[in-house]
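Most newcomers find our protein records easier to grasp once they have seen one. Read left to right, the backbone structure tokens trace the chain's path through space. Once this layout is familiar, the rest of the handout is easier to follow. The record below serves as our worked example for the rest of this section:


***
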Amino acid sequence: MLLKSAKNICQILFDAGYTAYIAGGWVRDLLLNESSDEIDIATSAPPSKIQELFEKTIPVGIAFGVVIVVYKGLNFEVTTFRKDHPYQDGRHPDGVDFSTPEKDAERRDFTINGMFYDPLNEKIYDFVGGKEDLTKGMIRAIGDPKKRFEEDRLRMIRAVRFATRFNFKIEPKTQAAIHEYAATIFPSISIERVWQELNKMANSARFDQAMIQLHTFGLLQELFAHLKDLSINEIETRVQFFPYFPLNCPLILYLLELFPAYTLKQKIHLCHYLKATVKDRKLVEFFSTPHEYTESYEWAYFYAHPLSKLFLEIQAAKKMPPDKQNYIEKHQQRAHQLQIAIQRIKNKTPLVTSAHLQAYGINPGKQMGELLKKAERIAINEGIETAELVLKQLGLLKSNS
């Protein structure tokens, strides 16, 4: 559906007299036989013509020739072939000149991302040596790597992401430029863009190696000042269990491993620095509790919590056999024993309810709240399955019978 829609967009542009190619990452992934869930299109049509040809468009960057075309419910970034003016802010060119596919390829970041694909003729256009670098397994900046990184400092992190995702090497000149420009990453780019890039990094393979490479290049220390004096060996130790973390593990939980001595207050400060979501902050708070309990009541509430499964998976990931298996089995057995209580907690259907207590003259208020909690504790800790037995334990049933 994605490719078919992209092809239809290119056909519409072609029928109007314009060249249109699929550009960038999708072409790279095609040649690598990798799946891709996003397609960008580059065209000779000016933005005004793109808007005219398609019913629904979003003018996200008209000044830079960028229009979002909404086609059959899917968003496609359609960009006019361009040559960029110099960059003064480390992110945006001062202006653009609409140009040719060859010139457009020259402004892109890395050779493996600088190719085009004509879906109408099923032909690849490679003006920058991208196919050769894919064969070599090489991440190479297009043209002068220093200029590419001056244009957008985030490209240094992207180089590491692509290198670790595909298990490629970064070619020497590109490496040298990253080393030279690492200390300039801020304030040219925002922490929000860094967060987005790290998220992509965490969702692909070898995130542990990505962290090690970022530290080797001096980038990780710039992102997180508290890591400046850390040795590469210590970084390797802190990320050693990343490969065993569950799929789609939230980025913030990976990052917490870099700061094992942080207090909860420092972790929350880290969340604010990263401009993380409220959901991420709640994750941090939950994961900052050891969750070691003595009562079945406490364990039941822990297992009923929606984050407990992820917590246990990550704790298990940081253990070595046979401790890992013992840890998993211990929690599986305990949760199985408490499954009835856990389900009651999830369903919010305690054995003893406010109606029970009101029947014995307990009015809503602090006393009722305390008795309800006590009743639930008794029921779970003693494995009681009837409200009458719990009420007896509370001394209510006997005194009112």
Observations:
- The longest strand covers residues 74-80.
- The mean pLDDT is 93.
- The chain has 24 helices and eleven strands.
- The two ends are 70 Å apart (CA to CA).
